[in-house]
Amino acid sequence: MKGLTVCMEEKTPQTPKNDVFSHHHLLFQSIGESTMSIVLNQLLPMMKPLNQRTNDDYSPEELLILLIYIYSVGGELAMDKDLGEAEEKVKKALAQVFCEESELSPLLQKITGCDSSIKLTFHKSKIAVDELFTSLRDIAGARNLMKQFKSVYVPGNHTHQASYKPLLRQVVEEIFNPERPDPVDIEHMSSGLTDLLKTGFSMFMKVSRPHPSDHPLLILFVVGGVTVSEAKMIKDLVTSLKPGTQVIVLSTRLLKPLNIPELLFATDRLHPDLGF
Q1: C-alpha to C-alpha distance for 196 and 20, rounded to whole angstroms
Q2: Do residues 45 and 39 lie in contact, with contact meaning Cβ atoms separated by under 8 Å?
Q3: Comparing C-alpha atoms, which of 146, 214, 151 is closest to residue 180?
Q4: CB atoms within 10 A of CB 214
Q5: Contact by Cβ (8 Å): 116, 104
Q6: What value, to the nearest 5°, has the Cα angle with vertex 49 and ends 44 and 54?
Q7: Is 176 helix (H, G, I), strand (E, B) or coil?
Q8: What is the pLDDT of residue 182?
Q9: What is the DSSP string of 209-257?
Q10: pTM here?
Q11: Residue 63: exposed, middle, or buried by beta-carbon count in 10 A (0-12, 13-18, 19+)?
């Protein structure tokens, strides 16, 4: 899940929730070994309304970040009876958490359409949560059309635990792969007369396409946002894979953890706020 592991880890040093946020690692290991229904059932005890929460428990916003993480890493879902039942339990628990907040945060106000907790009934909360889960399923299938970058989950074995491999890391590693294979999910868009001629000739003879690592300058533009940690990861990767290459990372915005559920659940994606 692009950025979410980074975002959650950035939060832990400033909060007393180190033990609680370590749950995301345990859930991550479960994703590869269990069905999504089992993972969601493991999440249920962490979903506590305000009158049962301590400082070490998840807030509603943090629960949303964790759900995004689970669905993104889990990837494409096969809907069945067990998953449907598990999702319904989590939906009801999350709707109840929203309802019992003494004050609605700006994010929850946008998600529920209510400007105060007094106006938020369980029915309204459940409708909002149902919409959230529609988006979560979309997130799970976001990489379905990809061939090479379908998964950010690396299964474990007898000697190594399962690990998370961010999409951006995979893209950069493929660009600077020393064997220089034609990237499957990175397309070269022809432009200009020279490229059009090459495209025409390629119909009759083998013409090698330009490779992303051919040039001393790499420009990566990330639509939707990038975290500081992701930008640093890209810089360090390029330095280690092909020293001397200059890299410029551009994006529509600099992301913080809570920006992610806001962009996914509380933004008109047909008219998005690009941050400038």
Answers
A1: 56
A2: no
A3: 214
A4: 8
A5: yes
A6: 95
A7: coil
A8: 80
A9: PP-GGGSSEEEEEETT-B-HHHHHHHHHHHHHHSTT-EEEEEES-B--T
A10: 0.78
A11: buried
Residue by residue, DSSP assigns 73-97 as: HH-S----HHHHHHHHHHHHHHHHH
Number of residues in the chain: 276
Looking up tokens 């995979």, which residue turns up?
170
Tell me the two tokens of residue 167: 């999409």
Largest distance between two CA atoms of the chain:
72
pLDDT tens per residue across all 276 residues of the chain:
333 333 333 333 333 344 444 555 556 666 655 688 888 998 999 999 999 999 889 999 999 998 998 898 887 777 788 999 999 999 999 999 999 999 999 999 999 999 999 999 999 999 999 999 999 999 988 888 888 898 887 777 777 777 788 899 999 999 999 888 888 888 877 665 555 555 554 544 455 677 888 889 999 999 889 999 999 999 999 999 999 999 999 999 999 888 999 999 998 766 766 666
Q: 152, 168, 148, 142: which is closest to 249 by C-alpha?
A: 168
Count of CB atoms within 10 A of residue 55's CB? 9
Q: Distance of alpha carbon 58 from its chain centroid, rounded?
A: 19
Quick one: tokens of 182? 């034609």
163-164 and 246-251 beta bridge pairing? unpaired
